[in-house]
Amino acid sequence: MTSKKDIKNKPDAIDYYRRAFLKRLGITAAATVGATSAHAAWGGKTLGDAFADFFQQHYQRMSAQELQETLNRIERKAQQQYGVEISCTDTPPLEGVVFGYAINVSKCKGYRDCVEACAIENNLPADIRYIHVLEMNEGSTSLELADRYYEHEMVPVEGKYYLPVQCMQCDNPPCVRACPVEATWMDSDGIVVVDYDWCIGCRYCMAACPYAARFFNWTRPKLVSERINKNTNYFGNRPRPVGVVEKCHFCTQRTRMGRQPACQEACPTGARIFGNLLDPNSEIRYVLENKAVYRLKEDLGTEPKFWYFSDR
Amino acid sequence: MALLLFFRDVFRELFRGSLLYWGWIVFLWAIIAMGGWSYIGQLNNGLVVTNMSNQVSWGFYISNFTFLVGVAAAAVMLVIPAYIFDRKDIRDVVLLGDTMAVTAVMMAMLFVIVDIGRPDRIWHMIPIIGRFNFPASLLAWDVIVLSGYLLLNLGISFYLLFNHYQGRDVKLKAYLPFIMLAIFWAISIHTVTAFLYSANTGRPFWHDALLAPRFIASAFCSGPALAIIILQLVRKLVGYPVRQSAIDTLRVTMTVALQITLFFVIAELFTDFYFEGAHSASAHYLFFGLHGAAKLTPWIWSALALLVIAVTILMIHSLRRNPVLFNIACVLTVIGVWIEKGMGLVIPGYIPTPLGEIFEYLPNATEIRISLGILAIGLLTFTLLAKAGMAIERRQLRLRDDIEEELAGLTDDEENESAEKLA
Amino acid sequence: MLRLLSVIIAVAIPCILVAGEADSGQAAQRYPEAPAFTVQPRNEQPKFNDCSRCHEEGDTDPEPRRLKTRHVREIDHGGNRFWCLTCHDGDNIDFLRTSSNENIDFDQSYLICGTCHADRQKDWYFGGHGKRVSGWQDERVILACTECHDPHKPAVEPRPPKPHTAIRIGLERQEHQPPATSQVWNR
After folding, report:
1. Could you point out which of B118, B134, C120, C152 has its C-alpha 20 to 30 Å from the C-alpha of A174?
2. CA distance A58 to chain C (A)
3. Which domains does chain A have, with CATH numbers?
4. ipTM of this predicted complex?
5. How many Å apart are CA A294 and CA A296, to the nearest integer?
6. Cβ pair C174:B292 closer than 8 A
7. Neighbours of chain A (3+ CB pairs under 8 A)
8. pLDDT by residue (tens digit) across B336-370?
9. Structure pTM?
10. What is the mean pLDDT of residues B291-314?
11. What 8-state DSSP symbol labels residue A55?
12. Counting beta carbons within 10 angstroms of the beta carbon of residue A238, is it exposed (0 to 12), middle (13 to 18) or buried (19 or more)?
């Protein structure tokens, strides 16, 4: 994966850039009508960027060069829209890795430290939270009677237990099947990713998801420039455009670099256990092999990679 | 050459009309402008201007889309008797049914376009250039069947009209295969739309084998009801000859379909409420409200009441023979099915969400304005297409080319004779 | 003097081996099949294990009582069965003592916890309990029990939660009522 620096240092970099520019010019000439209708709200601010945005290909079809140009464009757009200089990289999945996650329900106290950490790490606007902590009644698994908007002086509250939910990264994802343009798919490391620049915003995946884990950008995300996390990647926490669906992606910008997801790091009780399912010595494997684990709505056949267990 | 003349003559015909016609056109354009204005606002600010939310992510637009696909499918209720049962009286009005189908499909597609978050990315759906998730995605299927249906109906209608315009008689053999295809295709568009919903195992309200039969049944009562209203309107306003037998056939179809629809509703009510579990939560929300949220209950009960009143009128001879009551029954059917299949199907699927949240939804002014705009576009399209089509069918629009006339071998007198026979 | 020296040597050698580095001795024998780990040392925290600055060797009163000044007053652990010298070694006040009278450093306090909380400790060794602070594929560094559980008052206290997701303007939260059926005794 060539970075911006690599391309710049190549001896015929100028040639390369010129050819790229001419190619873009050609597309511009061919689609003049489209040009005038490129609205500032959808593309970048410059005409060249607006065109490149419009004609941007699906991630799996982009060449390395196109991908690099796309990443640069995303960085430019963040500068224009939020006034921050971010870095956007591509983090392909690691070999021999399939991620799994387990929550120790007896340890979760409902603090929502994970929810906040995820929001900060992933540049979430106020109305989107990838993680929700459900306050459930002791003795019941009824989701209908659970409350995710609890406001208490202190948690945990007597007679309740806490169940954090987020995208289950299903192995048999209904959302992937539903998407008419293949904007979402399961990568080789098990993470269901969304190509934000390919999604058309039809929201069929949101209808298909049995865990209500996908969220839509009803408007351009309002982010506070000072608090934007500047280390971003294509499939993860880079600022998303309006009109696309997003969801938890197990922090691809961190986990594919060997770090823990933000939620795991933030949990003060150690209720979250993340790791490589293919590694027989991993903590997640120990949990799955030694604890009474369960998954939500397992009967639907979605094969989530997100388990729950309890010490009690 | 004839093609150019065809379009020229059609174009001229569309600009000829009474005061009523022009008033109607201007009125429709005003509504289109209002809808267009709201849509520009939606493009600028995003779908946040609607009342949809992450909890209820499909709303009024998709409700209308669902209903309109049903109306489009119901054109087959005119095509089948016209061609399979060889009913000449219905053959004369089948083109109006096709026009209704084309208009309904077009409106349905427009509703989808205003609903998606990135209409600038629609090209992503084109196979090869974009990525088309066929056959896994039901939405991909829906795009194919709706586009195909539109092309099929446009093609058949155009073929017939163009030939009639040239004074040529059309051999049934030439286009019967397409008619047969259109019949099956019509059923398929609504079945695929039903499968769009019933494929979602995470939403028990939709995940129902009976959904596709319900869709077809309610389409086959609301579609003919609408067709009856339209046929009576063109007969009254324009003097287009519509035989009462055609309307009677549609009435019978509509009555039976309405009875089946109500039977399916009863089946759903029993299955949901005999022993209520968590899976019945959405149905409970729709019919009785859930934990204090009950915005849709008056709507669904009104819809059912309207349908029951309609079916009662249609089943009692003395009531049905009264033209006023009969037309009221048709209107009530359309409204009842629009509520029951539109908002009464789409919204409860989201309440409660798969993880138990309850947030209600009713369309706001922006959505209503845009929807009215699309409805106006549909009415305008129908008016224009029907006007041109009827002019051609009534032989008012003919290829005035001396050579063509000679070839056709018809004199003016003979033409008028055959025109009289039709009336 | 010689006795002091021999005690120091007897204690220092295992401590040097065990202190803050890769696990060995008791721990390794306990769960040899557990994946290797390092406990994050408590280096940010003030070192309280220089107790010998005040305590001379052998002057600790073994009588269970409530202590004054500089010491923890209440022990909310183990009912009323514990007192300070249950875990702290009165003879080597800078160290803790296990139930088999081994001296261990404060960074190996987990060895004592497992005496009673064996199941929990097994989970901790293998990663089913506790907090991993290194990356998921890096060298495994985990937190000691005492990082989350104050050994004098191990129960985790309630604290305020962070705010919930913003609810879209115009939407109302529905108040959930618990059903009558689930709590028969409360009907």
Report:
1. B118
2. 30
3. 2-85 (no CATH), 94-312 (3.30.70.20)
4. 0.90
5. 7
6. yes
7. B, C
8. 999 999 999 999 999 999 999 999 999 999 999 99
9. 0.87
10. 96
11. T
12. buried
